[in-house]
Amino acid sequence: MSGRRGGSALIVIGDSLTEHGTWPELLAEAAGWGIERVAHAGQTSTEIAVRLGAIGMTFSAAGAAQEGRVPLTPVGPSGDFRHHIDAGMADIAVSGTLAGRPGLLTHRVGGAALEGWEFASDSTAPAADAVLDFRAEAPVFSAPAVFVIWCGRNNPGPVVTRDVAAIVAELQANRPAARCVVLGVHAASFEPVGSEGAALVDGLNATLAQTFGDHFVDLSAAFREAAPTSDGTTAAQLRSDDVHLNAAGDAVVARAVARRLSELGWWPTGMALPS
Fold this sequence. Notes:
Layout: E1 9-14, H1 16-19, H2 23-31, E2 34-39, H3 45-51, E3 57-61, E4 69-76, E5 92-98, E6 101-107, E7 117-120, E8 131-136, E9 144-150, H4 159-173, E10 180-183, H5 196-212, E11 216-217, H6 219-226, H7 247-263
Parallel strand pairs: 1-2, 1-9, 9-10, 10-11
Antiparallel strand pairs: 3-4, 3-8, 4-7, 5-6, 5-8, 6-7
Protein name: SGNH hydrolase-type esterase domain-containing protein
Organism: Microbacterium oxydans
C-alpha cells in the first residue's frame, strides 16, 4: 500500500495493471486526492478478495508443524488460484488468523495452485485432523474518497463477479457510504473476436455490468473509442505488451473512470477532469 498525501485518498485495488499502472496518479492528481494502493501483480480476483478479508479460506493440514510452520492444503472456497511460476513474482503473504491463531499465510512462488501453502505462527499448532478456517486481517483506510476495483484480468471467468461483489460488500460493511466503482477487463492481443478468450472477457464484462450497473466502467468500450481495432483487441498503441498498458492506455483508463465518477456526482467540485 503506498503512502497518501493529506486529505482524502483514492483507494485502488487490483493486480499489475493497478500496481504498475500510472492511471491512479493521473486520476488522483486531477482530483486532488492522495493514493492508497492494494495491488499485487499476478494475483487473481480470488486471491485479492482473500487478501482483503472479503473471502475466507478453509484448509486442512498437509503435514506436521515444524518450527511454527504448518503446511496446508486448500479445501475452499472454489475459486481461482494461480500457478505462481514466475521467479520475478513475490510469494503471496497475508497476515490473518488460522483457527483463531494470528500469523502469516504464504503461498510460495513456484507452488501449484493447491500446493506450497503454509501458515507461520508463534501459537500452538492446530490439530492435524482439524478443518482450519483462515481470515485475512483487512487493511485499514483512513480517509477514502473513492474505491476503484479492477480485478479479473488474470482469471477472466465466472468467479470474478462473486469475488468483486465480496470485495465491495467488505468495503461497505464498515463504511455504508463507501463509494465504489468496478472496472471491466479488456481483451489482450491474443484474444480477437471469436476466440475463447474474447468470449470469457465479453461474458465477464456483461455480468459485471449487470451486477454493478452505473458503478461499472466499461474499459473495453473506452479503448475502442480511443483506438478502434478490426479484431476487437486492445490497440497496440495503448499497450506495452500483450496485456499491460502504456502511458496512452493508462490515460484512457483515467479519463474513463473520471467521467463515471463525475456522472455519479463523486468528482470534486471545481476540479477539471483529466485530459
